[in-house]
Hints:
Elements: H1 4-9, H2 21-28, H3 32-41, E1 48-50, E2 54-56, H4 59-74, H5 79-88, H6 90-117
Antiparallel strand pairs: 1-2
Amino acid sequence: MLEASNNNELPAIPGKRYFTIGEVSDLCAVKPHVLRYWEQEFPQLKPIKRRGNRRYYQRQDVILIRQIRGLLYEHGFTIGGARQRLSGEDARADNNLSQQIIRQLRTELEEVLNILRR
């Protein structure tokens, strides 16, 4: 899962509904061609495709990509191991995802509150 150190290194996820592949690439520190490859390897990762086959990712996709990145780059999992780890956690994934979204929203709201207090 995402650890606090990983969250601090990556930029906060903006409060948008959809993200382009370039935006996700910047948010997750992963190149676009790697994201396209991960779509083939991880069945959980399914961005919405619109006209011209353009990909649009949602917030939960960005969080999932950060989890995949953490497993592969920081914990040393192979693609197969990361896939197995994520599929084994499907029962808990919704709960973990909700907790991560809540933490992210709380952080963003605290930042807004600090701005308003100035």
